[in-house]
Specification:
Largest sheet: 7 strands, mixed
Helix content: 10-25%
Shape: globular
Order of helices and strands: EEEEEHEEEHE
Number of helices: 2
Number of domains: 1
Radius of gyration: 13 Å
Structural class: alpha+beta
Number of strands: 9
CATH architecture: Beta Barrel
CATH topology: OB fold (Dihydrolipoamide Acetyltransferase, E2P)
Amino acid sequence: MSLTFICLAAMAIDGDTLRCRDIGRVRIARIDAPELRGCRKGRRCAPGDPRASRDNLTKMIAGRRVVCREVDASPQRAGYQARDPYGRPVAVCEAGGRDLGREQLRGGFAIRWP
């Protein structure tokens, strides 16, 4: 069962996370974007410019209605995972008819995950 919702007053936190006024942080499904605060030791992080990634996401959502559909947070694990390890819902989100995750990949602002 997947929930579809409108992300009110969407704001890009980084290249793969939105903040919705009514829901809080939402992780964009199936992508990994460069980390704004750097990559923690022992973690494999996406390459690239984190600010450019965030700015591209900001540009795609500016003035547009953002509609999201929750998906399994971790398709690699058995059973449906409602949230990621940080408690965020994971969703496929669209703005202006464009899939935000797919566009981040297409522009080189994120890599595929998992």
